[in-house]
Amino acid sequence: MELSHLSPEDIISRAGSAPMEHKSLYRSIPTAHPTKFIFYPDGLTNEEAEFAALLADETSGISHEQRPEDRWYQYGDNEKTEFCFDAVNIPASRFSDGSFPVWYGATSQEASQAEVIHHLRRQAACELVHCESENAVRFERAWCRAVVSLPKACNISSFAREGHPGLREDGPPWPFCNQVGITAHREKFQGLVTASRRWPVDDCWAVFDSGVISGSVVRGYWDVVIERDETITLCSSENVTYENGEMVFL
Question: CB 3.0 to 4.6 Å from 92: which of 44, 85, 98, 205, for a disulfide?
């Protein structure tokens, strides 16, 4: 079926509305040097606050080997979703022009990693421009498993898998996908479900409402090195559990 003539409004209308729930969405979030307490302003001196602001602007995995116990997020921690939904400056993303926040998760760990690595490539290129002594950037991530229940969801995955060109655009910017998200948000959907752009066998969920996320908990870690020539090495992917009160990497 020819789909290219369909507008964002057409896609939302044809997809319709239905409740959707997923009990194991994967989301990758930063966990790197320094330890997380430095980003909490209470009790910081002016000098420490300036240093924390600098680190917040220039977070990078360059040359920071870190013990698991010093990571921002520990195993079992809840993701602080307010960093996404209550941010002062909301970045534009695939399904938002920056006028509203979007929380992204994927239906597999592989899809989550593939999506994040795509964007880290661009970040690594920017960082290496300003760091001539380094030839690679190492990014550490914690992955969360989340339970998400959307009373009103719009599933557009079939349109993406059947090849609508607008849903396959590479950004930034993402003019077509932005309009899809804006339309869904305006029509009071809690979220969109679409095929992962980087791992098409699985789906990505774009969630507009923090209230539908009943849990997003750290369940493991992974890290990736991106070199100046764009060589990508997935260094480790650690699933974690606790035995007798001690962290055990599976």
Answer: 98
